[in-house]
Amino acid sequence: MTNMLIKGLVATAVLTALTGCNSDDETHLVETPVATTCVEAGEECKTFTVLHTNDNHGRFWENSDGEYGMAARKALIDQIRAEVSSNGGETLVLSGGDINTGVPESDLQDALPDFIGMNEIAYDAMAVGNHEFDNPLAVLDSQRSIANFPMLAANIYKADGTRYFDAYKVFDVDGLRVAVIGLTTEDTAKIGNPEFISDLTFTDPATEAAKVIAEIKEANVADVIFATTHMGHYADAQNGSNAPGDVTLARTLAEGDLSAIIGGHSQNPVCMEPGTNAYADFAPGDDCAPDMQNGTYIMQAHEWGKYVGRADFEYFNGELHLASYKLIPVNLKKSVTEGDVTTKVFVSDEITPDADLKELLSYYQERGQGQLDEVIATTDALLDGERANVRNMQTNLGRLIAEAQRTKVGADIGVMNSGGVRASIAAGEISYRDVLTVQPFGNMVTLSTMTGAEVTEYLNTVASFQRGAGAYAQITGVKMIVDCTAKTVAISEINGKDYSATESYSFTVPSFNAAGGDGYPVLDPIQTGYVDAEVLYTFFKDKGTIAAADYAPMGDIEYQNSNSPLGCTVPAI
Ligand SMILES: [Zn+2]
To answer: InterPro entries from the xrefs (predicted)?
Structure first.
């Protein structure tokens, strides 16, 4: 009893002392005028600028119209850095990840030119994107060692329970301590190459962020906390089949715990209709208001370095303020038609590319072009992509492409529209250039999961498209009978196993068709981000030798009530 009483008394005394302190502080605060602008705050106000890009996807070089490219990006960033520094501020340059995959000249060199370009631009940090795992981990490790800046990911763990990358880094920006946390989409586990990522665990980014934020606060190592993420921005958190993105992250955390999220993955310009949760109708050069959710700004600069996002921040009275925001086009052009003549003109001032970086990268561009002609595989017979054939029957090349796409992501079924197969590959040697003639469109592979009953309904439409049209589907992984008149399918096997209406199955289809192209049912799939030509290239390269007969139709699809055994031909009644 006595003991407890003494403890209680001591506690009361401490409380009284604390209350005393507090009221002293309050008196002190009242006496100091509170600045409401950076100018009023004077010396106390720290200004800094965050520049950001995301989803580079191999675009180190400008396109054939001279748009974007890292040399112009560098010139723009150098110019902004100089301007910010002449006004007494400092600049941080961040990337929202996915440096890898998308352009043959880059893919063939494991994105080496892209990382060299990022070093020359002097990026400060990047988020790790899902496409950083498209190559064996040894390639990623070498990219990490080449990079003069950290790759950050708080939610990727190795088998031994330690993180594969640093969770965050604290930057001293004009005397202000800015922590930047990296986060990666959990979908990486689903769409990454299982061969490369099977030893890694991708944990929930929101849980991981909360943990890291608590750690940063506890250690008192930062004044403001940012995140650079590769999770996608979905307006009003409507992420559909994709893993939750930046909006969910911001809403899940305590209000304002993150000052800003610099994102990537969904490859959209995040410009909102002010005061709403909806995207604004944005065109290059327009004003852009970033998203604001639960006290967190969310920014994303479309893709490929088409824009550099510029956020000018001011910090005073212990608070961060966004003074201005822009998406600056990097030599983007628009078509202008006068009379019969259409020309492309810059949407904003032309940026003269940095000459030194352009020269440095031109070496890699030429080397990459040279590698397009290198032999990646051989085939013992013609792989048939002739328009007249592929739109009228199952062909070895059509089915090989469907097979390449489904194996890339470990799906049960591969569906490929024959309109997306543009050429044959002759018997003999195969180069990347051959692959690009077969699949020149740069469609992405999508991944959907459905019950057997839903797959049946999907294929009722897709398998009964008429012969002769680009919609005619090349399909692998399904044994079925197609009734062309009733437009129904009876599936007996999927991926070598007996069909069940309630079992769950996954399938791939090009993004063009998933969006309803060729009259396909509209899907809400996972966007794997794999470009079709790159998938086909990797498939050939991994196989080395192709036995064309392995991909020939094997009678797994039987067409009934049709004028042809090769597909549906039903005369209009
Ligand atoms: Zn991505």
So the answer is: 5'-Nucleotdase_C, 5'-Nucleotdase_C_sf, 5'-Nucleotdase_CS, 5_nucleotidase/apyrase, Calcineurin-like_PHP, Metallo-depent_PP-like
Find the 464 Cα to ligand 1 centroid distance in Å: 33
Alpha helix stretches (DSSP H) within 282-377: 355-371
Between CA 202 and CA 197 the distance in angstroms is: 9
Nearest to 486 by CA among 400, 559, 566: 559
User: Average pLDDT per run of 10 along the chain, which is 573 residues long?
Assistant: 39 40 47 82 94 97 97 98 96 98 93 98 98 94 98 98 98 95 95 84 98 98 98 96 96 97 97 96 97 98 98 96 98 95 95 98 97 96 94 96 96 96 95 93 93 98 93 96 96 97 97 92 93 96 97 93 91 61
Cα gap 514→516, rounded to integer Å: 5
Query: According to the model, what pLDDT value does residue 6 have?
Result: 38
Q: Is 130 a catalytic residue?
A: yes
Tokens coding 218: 């506890």
Q: Is 233 a catalytic residue?
A: no
* Residue pair 307/76 in contact by the 8 Å Cβ criterion: no
**HEC states along 111-151?**
CHHHHHHHHHHCCCEEECCHHHHCCCHHHHHHHHHHCCCCE
CB 270 within 8 A of CB 238: no
Q: Name the catalytic one among 107, 124, 134, 187.
A: 134
Type of residue numbered 389 = N
Residue 457 CA to ligand 1 center (angstroms) comes to: 30
CA of 269 to the centre of ligand 1 (A): 14
Going along the chain from its start, the domains and CATH numbers come out as 45-363 (3.60.21.10), 374-560 (3.90.780.10)
pTM of the model: 0.86
CA atoms of 242 and 240, how far apart (whole Å): 5
* DSSP sequence for 534-566: HHHHHHHHHHSEE-GGGGS--S-EEEESSSBTT
Could you give the CA distance from residue 518 to residue 515 in angstroms, rounded to a whole number? 9
Q: Which runs of E-coded beta strand occur in 317-400?
A: 319-329, 333-338, 341-346, 375-379
